[in-house]
Amino acid sequence: MKLARVVGSLTATVHHPSYDGQTLLLCEPVDGAGRRTGEVFIAVDRAQAGPGDLVLINAEGNGARQVFGLKPTDKLAIQDVIVGVVDAVEDAHA
Amino acid sequence: MQLARVIGTCVATQKYQGLDGVRLLVVEPVDVRGKATGAPLVAADTVSAGPGEVVFLVGAREAALAMDESFVPVDAAIVGLVDEAWRDDQGQGFLRGRDDQGAT
Known about the structure:
Oligomer: heterodimer
CATH superfamily of chain A: EutN/Ccml
Largest interface: A-B, 31 and 35 residues
Order of helices and strands of chain A: EEEEHE
Shape of chain A: globular
CATH architecture of chain B: Beta Barrel
Structural class of chain A: mainly beta
Low-confidence stretches of chain B: none
Number of helices of chain B: 1
């Protein structure tokens, strides 16, 4: 799973049915010290995260289907899901 | 999933059987300011996007799952038309769906 910071939001009225009723947030990948490590991406929020929160991202479809209570064979076109709001990270290399 | 802008269309008459009727668009990944962040790629369209529009993409196996016929060789699909995208921090970055100039 990836560590990321929630940096914004987006609205998309027209979307694939997989995204019906889901909250989309803009996230930026960060390292253990909170430093930005890559480009902004979009994640579906399933952990009531908000702007500025450090979050845990499941970045793979099978895990996403599990979060949505679906079977591995079900069709869900979602990869990145926020599955936790991080309280603290201890990074030995930071 | 990532933000991108549609910059063109792609026509391939001869393609794998499951891809008949699938709309292919050329997109370039962008950041929240509308600046290109990577090399253009071809994505299958599921939401009737058009040139100049800001969209979001899903990749990998989930791209194929977005298609009506889901056992197809597709590794990038357009799954949403972005109305607005904005950053809460630094007061920077605002992207509107049909803004060819990108954000300011």
